[in-house]
Known about the structure:
There is one protein chain. The chain has helices at 11-22, 52-60, 106-119, 149-159, 193-197, 255-263, 266-277, 325-341, 362-390, 396-408, 412-420; strands at residues 2-7, 27-30, 47-51, 72-74, 76-81, 87-91, 101-105, 123-126, 129-136, 141-147, 176-186, 202-218, 226-231, 236-241, 246-254, 284-287, 291-300, 304-305, 308-310, 316-317. The strands form three sheets. Strands 5, 6, 12, 13, 14, 15, 16, 17 and 20 form a nine-stranded mixed sheet that branches. Strands 1, 2, 8, 9, 10, 11, 18 and 19 form an eight-stranded mixed sheet that branches. By secondary structure, the chain is of the alpha+beta class. The protein has eleven helices and 20 strands.
Amino acid sequence: MRDVLVAGGGLTGASLAVALAEQGLKVAVAEAVAPGDPGQPSLDDRTSAIARTGVRILKQLDVWPRLSEAASPIRAVEISERGCFGAARIEAQAEGLENLGCVVRNRVLGKALWEKLRELENIEIFCPARVRSVETGSGSVAVRIEDGVVARERKAKAGGASGGGGEAGTGRSGTIRTVKARLLAVAEGARSPLRDAFGIPAQQTDYAQVAVTGLVQVRKLIRPHTAWERFTAQGPLALIPAGGNRYGFVVVSGRDEAAALKAMEDADLLARLQALVGYRAGQFVRVGRRAAYPLALSRAARVTAPRAVLVGAAANSMHPLAAQGFNLALRDIAALTETLAAQQGPPGLDAHRCPPPDPGDVELLSRYASWRRRDQANVVRFTDTLARLSRRSLLRPLRGLALQAFDLAPQAKPLLARFALGQGGRMSRLARGLPL
Length: 436
């Protein structure tokens, strides 16, 4: 019997598994796509801006030392409106901080997390494997897992129907095993089948926008360690430092415009980015491969079910404009781990005299949900408001004035900085840089 089975081994699922295992819990992880596979949807070439609280959490999990040399610090954020005077600037030094956060490529972060996963003896890994069904009992949840299904499905798509009995690559002949756990943590992402299986509805809002992402190199850095948020008539754009003379870029636009951007020749895309940003970040000279991701808001009506908890994008998936998604997930992970760790009892507890703690206890999960409700709601509301305002071209003059007013209001910057750093509301011990 496992204490917790984590469904999903992307950035969120792997982080949660490490955090729980570090507290002595017996953990199993089921991930559909191996971390080194080119088709891995989470551990790809995108970059993640990790706030200071997130860095603290990863340090406490012994993950950050494995990737700190590959991380690029953010020491300032500048927000501007194309075609308008003035800009709002938040600087770490003004807030008494060394940096506001760091940027890491998802592939590098995923590698560090999986290295840590494989070192922990109390973690069992099923990969590639997919959860096929779940049956909830009074004291445990029985999860049916099919091994190797993703590899077979990909092979079938590449080569058509296979021989040897006519298997069509659906994975029906894969090895099925049943794994029992006292808690199922769902970290599958925004389109989680398990969330639906537990009957948890989710509010879905299609922004009718697509994010085109990639890496771009400048000839010379103008303002090192600065991240840029730029509002344009076509949609918002973000540049975040990615090491050396490179930036990770995110251009948000309508579907047709995004398709055109993704298909552009490198020279045309460089010219397009330069026109949108200007030369404040430098002269763009080289651009890498691009990827496109449709944008939508997805918010689960609740984050718990009998013997189950939703974590990360399975609970809240939001617009990337403020780079809050993975940071919110890390704060959820830290709070859930602290909630469960509090039930483990002091070291040396006699397990023969005292019943083992139950991670799936309904009151325990209720306390976690209550703890995280306000922070989750605030972040979703903030990112959704930004997404809606960024699409309205008629508000362009007002956005420009608002940015100038913000830059002149000294009391406003610390409030926004605290929010962006994930320091609003009750903070977990891990988020404060303290061990459990």
